[in-house]
Amino acid sequence: MKKWVTILTAVLLCFTCLQVSALDVRAEDTVTIKVYNWGEYISDGSDDSMDVIKEFEAQYPGIKVSYTTYATNEELYAKLRSGSASYDVIVPSDYMISRMIAEDMLEPLDFSNIPNFADIDDTFKNPQYDPENEYSVPYTWGTVGIIYNTTMVEGTVDSWEVLWDPQYTGQILMFNNSRDAFGIAEKLLGFSQNTTDVKELEQAAEKLKEQKMVLQAYVMDEIFDKMSNGEAALAPYYAGDFFIMQEDNPDLAFAVPKEGTNLFVDAMVIPKGTEHKKEAETFINFMLEPDIGLANIEFIGYSTPLKTVKSMLDEEVLNDGISYPSQEILDKCESFVNLPDELNRYMDELWVDIRASGSSSVIELIFLFAVILGLGGALIIYLRRRNR
Description:
The protein is α/β, with parallel strands linked by helices and 388 residues long. The protein is 45% helix and 15% strand. The protein folds into 2 domains: 2-135 and 266-321, Periplasmic binding protein-like II (D-Maltodextrin-Binding Protein, domain 2); 142-262 and 340-356, 3-Layer(aba) Sandwich (D-Maltodextrin-Binding Protein, domain 2).
């Protein structure tokens, strides 16, 4: 009997060892790729939408996704340049992509692993920021305009000048990134958004300093709550995000200023030095699948560069004048290009100076005034008690 027990125990131990070994092999075969994207920029399963990350992991069980977000191109660039973190897929905008290419920060793509690239509209192939299409795959595109609350703003909104209107002091929001902010001031002054003239850049900086006294705050993702909740009247932002805010607040409207605006493209790229390049390319190709592309576009509200996805959209979306603007509007648009390094550095210096000058918002002025009143009152009470 003891002999049989010994044999059975040995068999069970062997079986357990085999199971553990199999698990170890499966664990070793699983790769985790790090995806770094803009906030609220992928269909995530909320509001009955598709959870794209879960769909990818289900289709490719050997690849897991670690997904995190950033708020600006400059934040993304600084993090990668510092070496404090590494990623496998990132989604910068056009001008930042050309900057990263120039600084050898991106991996050339193997398009044999991205066959769905064939569905990208020719308009978005071989762009100025990546002329040979070696490094990038377009994800979305759109324009920048003015989002405004029709119950709080009077008259027609058709110029960037409204973002300097003292009538709306304390109700205006502004981009919290240098390139978009300077681009607006440059357009208002009649300059190119890609000017390399230092004098024009300095004039734009002065214009942005003038704006500070009417601002409520500089924002990025914070704009969603502020505009949706009626906490601000006016803000420049991306057309796609307008639709998300309008769902929460039907009083919101969108306008492309007569001075012209920025037409941007955000594209998927792979940072230099990734250890999971093929898996990253697999993820990029997956994002170009028609059902995945449609889920993303319907969730985030931006415009698609995919021909098949565009053909699947409702006529209402195609003809709303915002998602897919008329040629008349597109003719007024300008895409950012990468500026010379010294000019980028100077713009950053000017931006720091803008943010540091004067009061950054009316709310801060009110707070400071309240503090002064409070201190004054406390001093008066103290002196009276001392006199007694």
